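Progress report, Aim 2. The chain analyzed during this reporting quarter is listed below.
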Amino acid sequence: MGNGFTKGVIIGGLIVASISLAMNNNLMSTRGRKRMMKSGKRLLKRTGNMVSDITGVFR
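Predicted structure tokens for the chain:
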């Protein structure tokens, strides 16, 4: 449990930091914000595909 919890806290912290940076208009340009959103969508798509493959293996 400790390993998964630590990993979740680290990933959650990174997500919160990136969201707060994207919300603050003074620190980030629109181009950088769009680039971050694009990479985030790509990451979510990859992890979703990976999870579906893993669940397919266990079925």
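The CA atoms of residues 15 and 49 lie 20 Å apart. The chain has one domain: 2-58. These observations will guide the mutagenesis work planned for the next reporting period.
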